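Postdoc handover notes: sequence design on the structure in folder B. Input C-alpha cells:
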C-alpha cells in the first residue's frame, strides 16, 4: 500500500503520465502535510488562541516531522536541488521559515489564520483525492485491478475536514466580535 505523499512519486511512473496523455499534477499529493504545517505555524502562537507555552512548543516540534513528508522517498542533498525536486525543497524551506516565524504570524487577525487554514485544508482534502481518481484507471491498467483505498485515506480526509471546520469556526468567532474564545472569566 502507498501513503498519500508516496503517490506523488508513484504516479510519475505510470505510462500515461510519462507519455503526457494523463495530466497529473503530482505535487498536489503533498498538500495534506503542507496544510497541516502551515496551519500549525499560523495558530501555535496566536494571540487569539493563547495556547500555553509548552503546548506551543509541542505543536512546532510535531510540525517538523510532518514537514519532512515533503521530501521525496529516496533523496540526497544534491538531488533536492535538481529540477525535479526544486519546488519541493523550496516549499519545505518555506514551511520551516513559517514555523520559525510562527511567533510573528500569531499577530495576524484570527480571521486571516482561520481563512488560510480553511482554504488550505479543503484544498488538501479534495485536490489529491481528485488526482488519485484521475490516476485510478492507469493504475488499474498496470496492475489489472483498481487500487484499494485504505483507512488512512479516510482518516486523512477526516482530519483535514476537521481542520477546515476549525478554521471556519475561528473565522466565525472573529467576525462575531467576542473577545473570549475559550476562556471564561
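Designed sequence:
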Amino acid at each position: 500500500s502507498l501513503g498519500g505523499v508516496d503517490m506523488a512519486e508513484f504516479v510519475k511512473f505510470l505510462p500515461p503520465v510519462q507519455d503526457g496523455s494523463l495530466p497529473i499534477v503530482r505535487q498536489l499529493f503533498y498538500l495534506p502535510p503542507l496544510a497541516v504545517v502551515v496551519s500549525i505555524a499560523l495558530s501555535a502562537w496566536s494571540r487569539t488562541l493563547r495556547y500555553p507555552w509548552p503546548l506551543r512548543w509541542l505543536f512546532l516540534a510535531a510540525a517538523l516531522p510532518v514537514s519532512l513528508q515533503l521530501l521525496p522517498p529516496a533523496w540526497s542533498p544534491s538531488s533536492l536541488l535538481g529540477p525535479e525536486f526544486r519546488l519541493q525543497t523550496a516549499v519545505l524551506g518555506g514551511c520551516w521559515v513559517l514555523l520559525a516565524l510562527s511567533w510573528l504570524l500569531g499577530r495576524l487577525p484570527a480571521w486571516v489564520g482561520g481563512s488560510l487554514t480553511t482554504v488550505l485544508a479543503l484544498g488538501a482534502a479534495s485536490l489529491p483525492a481528485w488526482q488519485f481518481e484521475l490516476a485510478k484507471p492507469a493504475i488499474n491498467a498496470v496492475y489489472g485491478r483498481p487500487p484499494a483505498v485504505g483507512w488512512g485515506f479516510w482518516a486523512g480526509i477526516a482530519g483535514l475536514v476537521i481542520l477546515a471546520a476549525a478554521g471556519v469556526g475561528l473565522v466565525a468567532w472573529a467576525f462575531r466580535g467576542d473577545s473570549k474564545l475559550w476562556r471564561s472569566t
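Context for whoever picks this up: The chain has one domain: 4-176. Don't rerun without checking with the PI first.
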